[in-house]
Amino acid sequence: MPSVRTVLVTGGNRGIGFAIAEEFVRQGHRVAVTARSGSGPDGTLTVRADVTDAASIDAAFIEIEAALGPVEVVVANAGITKDTLLMRMTEDDFTSVIDTNLSGAFRVVKRASKGMLKARFGRIVLISSVVGLYGSAGQVNYSASKSGLVGLARSVTRELGARGITANVVAPGFIETEMTAELSDAVQAEYKKNIPAGRFASAAEVAKVVTWLAGDDAGYISGAVIPVDGGLGMGH
């Protein structure tokens, strides 16, 4: 029987984060999500938290630990975009995206590592993007934040790998979410031309990779970047 774990998914109130939380619940785990608004799927504990604020993350962990036990699996998924071309990008456009997507993951992982070190077990999964390594015009801030997660996971692996803790990166490509649904048919067709698989992924396809990485069978995988992008970013 696979082990039942206490799981935290940040930004679990919509999109990929919601699907990840849903899949962990389906597999029988104890699941909490953080959200600034809204709530996670049925069967999850939703905790208000802002990943840009270390005190709010600490409070969220205390609440989750009291209700569900020490966090054994953390999925750092919370993220924002402020897309614009480099010449128009303000200092705030850049730093706010870094602060949520990269520094936010650092704060969550740092807080989670306390309990993981004590338990000598942990699974850290950072949700990046194909854009992190492939690049994307108009997304200097987002791309930088998402590629930074790779260095974070690899350094954490070197520091904590001997304690039964793994840290990996999942890099989704284009996913069927509310955001992609708003694109015109012509734009969607243009994107799909560059994807060898010829389609967007479902959020559930990303979720299943995340839950597998967090499971017992993936204990010897750490510091890896696993693309779920239909072949879009090959070699990057």
TrEMBL record:
<dbReference type="InterPro" id="IPR057326">
    <property type="entry name" value="KR_dom"/>
</dbReference>
<dbReference type="InterPro" id="IPR036291">
    <property type="entry name" value="NAD(P)-bd_dom_sf"/>
</dbReference>
<dbReference type="InterPro" id="IPR050259">
    <property type="entry name" value="SDR"/>
</dbReference>
<protein>
    <submittedName>
        <fullName>3-oxoacyl-ACP reductase FabG</fullName>
        <ecNumber>1.1.1.100</ecNumber>
    </submittedName>
</protein>
<dbReference type="InterPro" id="IPR002347">
    <property type="entry name" value="SDR_fam"/>
</dbReference>
<feature type="domain" description="Ketoreductase">
    <location>
        <begin position="5"/>
        <end position="178"/>
    </location>
</feature>
<dbReference type="GO" id="GO:0004316">
    <property type="term" value="F:3-oxoacyl-[acyl-carrier-protein] reductase (NADPH) activity"/>
</dbReference>
<keyword id="KW-0560">Oxidoreductase</keyword>
<dbReference type="Pfam" id="PF13561">
    <property type="entry name" value="adh_short_C2"/>
</dbReference>
<comment type="similarity">
    <text>Belongs to the short-chain dehydrogenases/reductases (SDR) family.</text>
</comment>
